Amino acid sequence: MSGQAWQVSFPPFYTLQKNEETRKKQLDAWSSLVIEHSRKTSTSTIDLSEIRRSVLFTNSKIERQASIELVEAVFSQLVQKGNAIWKDKSKSKCLLSSQTFSSLAAALYNWAQMSGHINQVCTIFELSQGEEISGEIFQNVPEEIIIIALKLLQKERKAELIGTDGVKFF
Amino acid sequence: MKAVLGLKKQRDELRRAQIRADHEEKIMKVKAKECLSKGQKDKALKILRRKKAIDKRLETTDNHLENIQTMIDQIQTTKEQQQIVSAMATGNKALKELHTVLNPEYVEGVMDEVAEGVENQQEIDALISRTVFSSDDEEELEAELDALTSVDLPTVPKTEIDLPNVPMGEDEETEKASPAKQEPILA
User: What is the CATH number that goes with domain B2-101?
Assistant: First the structure.
């Protein structure tokens, strides 16, 4: 994190870089900044134009604000890496998770196996706030994000969502 | 399955209510202290009364939660028992089907046949292992040896004639051996 402090006050950091390698480093740095920011503010639903105006993407000291294309590129990369998912077709809002959805899915399924919850119904609330999941990486993760991880398991036929608030593991 | 989910949803709802009440209680405590420090004793008392009401609500919520959890557990246990019984019924059916093929009379018949076969084999063994020639041969060979070593023994051929009953002795031996053989086979 300390290495990123200089970037925040480095004007070119706020414009999408043309050189492929530089751009990759720039986007990686922005990605971790965004994840860190969402963890601190404990927000998971992010409005792209709103976050662009926030202190994260704006530095008044050097009079810089990230370009729209840069913000879009950062979030596209987060989506690609499995840390975020678009909430609308116009890609103006996304749901961000500090853990990738696939690692959450793996942790959820592992928990279900270890705790004997295979063939059992659980509520999404239980998986996020329940007493049985303390210490797991998905503890206190918003239910919305847990549902996306469960949908990945559903694709692998390891779970089935029941309505909007239940799940059964296989 | 639907019933368990419904109960669990209700349980979550109660947990949320509990969190809310906990939160409210904490706020009341702080407020009461504030009022006391300002000297508003009456107001503090009112707030404390409110806090007590919340306490009571929390207690009943706790009881409800426990009841729901018990019911969830009961449903799950009964479901498991039902599965066990149905698995055992399936097993029992399979066992019965097998018994229609494998009944005691059939087994007895097979075992009798096996015993007969073993007996026959033993008889054959005894017959086949009986030495037919060897004793005669040996006598002949010994006689020849004697003839070679000592020239003064013309009576030797006579003993050869006196021994036709030797094979009978060997027969008795094989008969003695056979019951010993039979025992481990039957066991």
Answer: 1.10.287
